[in-house]
Write a structure and sequence with these properties.
Elements: E1 2-8, H1 11-24, E2 30-36, H2 37-44, E3 51-54, H3 62-70, E4 74-78, H4 89-99, H5 102-107, E5 110-113, H6 116-125, E6 133-135, H7 139-142, H8 146-152, H9 154-160, E7 166-170, H10 177-193, H11 201-229, E8 234-238, H12 245-252, E9 261-263, H13 269-275, E10 278-281, H14 285-292, E11 296-300, E12 318-319, H15 322-329, H16 338-345, H17 355-363, H18 373-405, H19 411-416
Parallel strand pairs: 1-2, 1-3, 3-4, 4-5, 5-6, 7-8, 7-10, 8-9, 10-11, 11-12
Helix pairs in contact: 4-6, 9-13, 10-11
Length: 423
């Protein structure tokens, strides 16, 4: 038997997808370990050598990659961001200056890509390592198949149907001025530490952040208008894991005037799209997904905003006018436009075979050590108890420090991994 480590950073975005990958390959000669980043780090210290399947090889990830590799593990990556929404190849290559480095590519055993676009970008930038780069698609695509999502998300879709017919808005904004200031500082920090970024790129990124906040304010205004124009329809907003739900509620005043607005992020994105009547978005992959799933989809955008990652907006009908948006939502049916679907599939590698299977086929080609099964289960039991006690002490310590000093913040974990992984 061989071992694959699968760390999760953002639970609502990654957990179901990674579990689907495991379920599709459970009959293979592999043991799968899935957990948050801290649990997976602990596991690599005690369970044995295996494959570490991570979501990125950012330029600042070198110490992390070296630590994983130093224990004899294979390191592979499928970038969770994908890069498929970047407006053009030039922008994607600039993004790769952050999402990778030549050193990290040299350390990584395999890099999987979402489709033709990022596959070509990776191979253009790292010609020397092109044999490491493989076009596989993402397990995310597997969940977009009707026969898959109707089965996996049956209960969630049934629950959400009680709100039907509803308009769904997947959010991906900077949704507070305080966050905007922090984001600009973060961009400056990333630029200072990375000498590979081209001139002017920082300025573009800061504009993108400012435009994201402007778009958020415009969406708040638009949602209020829709709430009034469609009083019998629910409007469900799913905030991005990074967004503050309280800021949304404060801006929308949903308890009083706009009572048909629901802010909810309990479920996987696919369930909300599947149960919806129509989808409104800007820039996010969710818009491309909803078009593939056959939903009435439209991109609503501000004029003169950043065009760094606006490809998704071009893959469906799009508008900057509220009147046009309302007119489109009032249409009883939509005609599938093959031109739009073709644009989407130009970015994604979607085949008759699940991406989960394609990725596993490529993993099996890598030379991987077999586990010593005589000691594996014993180590698993002993270290599980040890780390359970240790981690609970860590969490307790953080809570105490929060209350006493009011300056130690562990918010990012509670937002990204609400409730942890218990089962």
């Amino acid at each position: 038997m061989k071992l694959i480590y699968i760390p999760i950073e953002v639970k609502t975005r990654e957990l179901i997808t990674k579990l689907f990958f495991i379920a599709n390959n459970i009959s293979e000669n592999f043991i799968f370990f899935i957990g948050d980043k801290m649990a997976t780090k602990n596991a690599t210290s005690c369970l044995g050598k295996g494959v570490y399947f991570y979501k990125s090889i950012n330029w600042y990830d070198t110490p992390h990659i070296n630590r994983i590799k130093s224990k004899g593990n294979v390191y592979i990556s499928l970038d969770e961001e994908g890069g498929v929404t970047q407006s053009n190849k030039s922008n994607f290559l600039s993004i790769l200056n952050r999402r990778s480095s030549e050193l990290n590519v040299s350390l990584t055993d395999k890099i999987f890509t979402w489709g033709n676009f990022d596959f070509d970008g990776w191979r253009t930038k790292y010609k020397k390592y092109k044999n490491k780069i493989v076009k596989t698609g993402s397990p995310r695509f597997d969940l977009w198949r009707k026969e898959v999502y109707l089965k996996i998300f049956k209960d969630e879709i049934l629950y959400l149907k009680k709100y039907s017919p509803y308009i769904f808005i997947p959010s991906t904004f900077i949704n507070s001025y305080e966050w905007l200031k922090k984001e600009i500082e973060h961009e400056k920090k990333m630029n200072r530490g990375n000498r590979k970024e081209p001139p002017g790129f920082l300025k573009k990124r800061i504009k993108q952040s400012k435009d994201s906040y402007k778009s958020y304010l415009a969406y708040v205004k638009m949602i209020k208008e829709l709430s009034t124009k469609f009083p019998k329809k629910k409007i469900i907003i799913k905030p991005h894991p990074k967004e503050n739900v309280i800021d949304w509620k404060r801006k929308l005043n949903i308890k009083n005037k706009y009572s048909n607005i629901i802010i909810d992020n309990k479920f996987d994105l696919t369930a909300y799209i599947a149960a919806s009547e129509s989808v409104i978005f800007t820039e996010t992959i969710a818009g491309m997904q909803s078009a593939i799933m056959g939903k009435k989809t439209i991109s609503y955008n501000l004029k003169n905003v950043s065009t760094l990652r606006n490809y998704a907006n071009k893959c469906v009908p799009h508008t900057t006018e509220l009147k046009t948006l309302v007119k489109y939502l009032n249409k009883r049916s939509i005609t599938k436009n093959s031109k739009y679907i073709k644009k989407i599939k130009n970015r994604f590698y979607v085949t008759n075979k699940n991406s989960s299977k394609i990725i596993m086929e490529n993993i099996k080609k890598i030379k991987i050590n077999d586990l010593n099964m005589n000691f594996f289960h014993l180590r698993l039991k002993i270290y599980s108890i040890f780390y359970l006690l240790l981690d609970n002490l860590k969490f307790l310590s953080i809570e105490i420090k929060n209350k006493i000093f009011n300056k130690f913040n562990f918010k990012s974990y509670s937002v990204k991994m609400p409730g942890g992984i218990k089962k």
